[in-house]
Amino acid sequence: MRHKPYTTFAFFKAAVAGSGLLVVLLAFLEWGLGLPVFLPGIALLLLAFSVLGFRILQLIYKFQLSRIHDTNQVEALLWLYSRFTPSVNLPAMREVAGSPDFLKVLVEYYYSHQPQVIVEAGSGVSSIILSEVLKKEGSTTRHYALDHLEKYAGLTSEKVLNPHSEVLFAPLKAYHIDGNSWKWYDINVLEKVDKIDMLVIDGPTEDIQPLARYPALPLLKEKLSDRVVIILDDTNRRDEQRIIQLWQKEFGLHAKSMFTEKGTVVMWR
Length: 269
Ligand SMILES: C[S@@+](CC[C@H](N)C(=O)[O-])C[C@H]1O[C@@H](n2cnc3c(N)ncnc32)[C@H](O)[C@@H]1O
Fold this sequence. Notes:
- The chain folds into two domains: 5-78; 89-268, Vaccinia Virus protein VP39 (Rossmann fold), CATH 3.40.50.
- The chain starts with 8 loop residues before the first helix and ends with a strand.
- 47% of the residues lie in helices and 20% in strands.
- By secondary structure, the chain is α/β, with parallel strands linked by helices.
- The strands form two sheets. It has a seven-stranded mixed sheet, with helices on both faces.
- The chain binds S-adenosylmethionine.
């Protein structure tokens, strides 16, 4: 968290000293010079302190929450490493990449749901982790990860060593859904894929269009198995919350929220 000057003790001391001086000045103006400024000045001062106090409380809350999330990332990472030892160096997690608590949700669902076909929208560390888990378990589950950026598709592909996992470069393509124009991965690369029973949606990036991930279900609905589990990341964002509402309305999905730092929601029919 970035420290603001008003979160420091030095600022607090300066504010109290400054306010004391201001009160003396206001008193002098009112009773020495006869200007009616004392009460309005005090009212303004109280208002300024209330706004600052509120902002400081907000920052304390954010700070406490980020401490909880930081601890959860360490615990999730330890959990992941207790499950398997990666055979490649893992790229940096968090920020634009998947966070350990999200990756843990994916691995937990792999074990509990035993999918035969996994598709990921948005490749990266999640693809490497899933491919490593599948390899360790000797699984024949087919696993495909889409990426619209050739550079990242290539970088991730180099670290996906399980023969049943594949990173597919799928440039964004224009689609029409219910009369509206959208961009999404070119799903022709999934031509031979059907009965997807685990769909992980962590791409494309939000800058490509409003509700960037909405097209996932309208475009892939024919390819989903009846027992599909859909895992959407970044659900702390308003766009993703709206997407869940739309999908629930259009596809009658159940949804469960997982407490992760970016927000993760698991959905099923
Ligand atoms: C949210 S990321 C996908 C994250 C992926 N599921 C993971 O766990 O890392 C969405 C897209 O960002 C792009 N991307 C990946 N790494 C990136 C980086 N270091 N900087 C910018 N974009 C990146 C890729 O095109 C990726 O498909």
